[in-house]
Amino acid sequence: MEKETVNWLQLVQHLNNPQDAALAQQVRQWTAASPENEATFLQVQQLWQLSPDLKILDQLDTQTAIARLQEALPEEETTIHQLPARRYRWFRVAAVMVPIVAAAYWFYHSSGSIIYKEKATLAAIDSLLLPEQSRVYLDKNSRVRYPEKMQKNRTVIMEQGTAFFDVSTQTAVPFVVKIGQSSITVLGTAFNIHMEDRRIGVTVKTGKIKFATGHANTPATILTAGEGIRFDPATGSVEQFNAINSNADAWITHELVFVDAPLSEVCKKVEALYQVKINLRGKIPVKKLNATFKNNKLEEVLEVLQATYPITVVHRNREITITGR
Q1: Predicted confidence (pLDDT) per residue in 169-217, tens digit
Q2: For residue 137, is it left (φ>0), alpha (ψ between -120 and 50) or beta?
Q3: What is d(CA 242, CA 246) in angstroms, rounded to the nearest whole number?
Q4: Residue 272 half-sphere exposure, CB side, CA atoms within 13 Å?
Q5: CA nearest to 74, candidates 167, 148, 6
Q6: Helix (H), strand (E) at residue 157
Q7: Does CATH place domain 254-324 in 3.55.50.30?
């Protein structure tokens, strides 16, 4: 994909199948080539996410819209009539770019339906202040959707990645986060959500939440500060755990808190926060660590570990070897 050419088919294939690592890498390289490419991708991605809500398009002359879209595409791009029928979902989304369809879409939503906006990140952490004053922090490669107006509806849709929610208590309207068929309901709290391969991990920092899997046979789980839950929609398995040492929000707080944590667990959290590889060798000490690191440099953390345990630490580039004595 060259900078001046938008390969619409490749973008659609990626949105259809985000698990295709090779295709995802090609799209990432293209979006990173210029700010214009990144903006185009985010616009197409937003249209794609909105497509299930575009019921008004079912009432439109799709063939006419497709023909007008074809005229707007570069001549060297693949023509629409050559694409398989399963791509029509994309055509309905792409048709929004046609003025007459965009006008119809605006008319449909202005009649009272909820209009959702989107916030997405690529290679950097970012934050979002919602209209009702809750704040959402998004890790890299994360995406959420939220209502443009939130006086009566505080439902946010978590699409992918990792997010930390600091929920406002200025209103009694419940705050809800939808994750596929699952949901989290709160009134005022702070919690972290991590999505990976459709699996969901939630940890509560303050307050209380209710986690509902969306499965009829699984009751909702109440979680309070220091508790967490893991849920796999594919198997229906639910695991509740003590999240005191999880440090799930370290990516945004830059703080690591350890309470009676074994060295192996400490190393995993240091790896994740500082983006390094730690190799444990020799006799692993059984002593537990009680410590808090706040905005510390990696070298400072390693110095504390070496002073606490009978270990030798060797640090080369992004790889660390810890050997028990």
Answers
A1: 888 889 999 999 999 999 778 999 999 988 999 999 999 999 999 888 8
A2: beta
A3: 8
A4: 17
A5: 6
A6: strand 155-160
A7: yes
Residue 32 near residue 41, CB atoms below 8 Å:
no
pLDDT in tens, 233-265: 988 899 999 998 899 999 999 999 999 999 999
Residues 6+ apart with CB under 8 A from 91: 62, 65, 66, 69, 80
Helical axes 8-16 vs 21-32, angle rounded to 10° = 130
Q: Which helix (H) or strand (E) holds 37?
A: helix 35-50
> β-strand 175-179 against 135-138: which pairing, if any?
unpaired
Domain 117-242 has CATH 2.60.120.1440: yes
Contact 44, 79 (CB under 8 A): no
Residue pointed to by tokens 């080369």: 316
Residue 79 confidence (pLDDT) above 90: no
Find all residues with CB under 8 Å of 98, minimum gap 6, and list them: 65, 68, 69, 72
> Which DSSP string do the residues of 206-247 spell out, in sequence order?
ESEEEEE-S-TTS--EEEETTEEEEEETTTTEEEEEE-TTT-
Q: Which helix (H) or strand (E) holds 253?
A: helix 250-253
What's the first-to-final CA gap in the chain, in angstroms? Answer: 53
Q: Do domains 117-242 and 254-324 have the same CATH topology?
A: no
Domain residue limits, the chain: 8-110, 117-242, 254-324
Handedness of CA 253, 46, 148, 171 (dihedral sign): negative
State pLDDT tens for residues 21-74: 788 888 888 888 887 888 787 777 766 655 544 444 444 454 555 555 555 555
* Mean pLDDT over the full length of the chain: 81
CB 4 within 8 A of CB 74: no
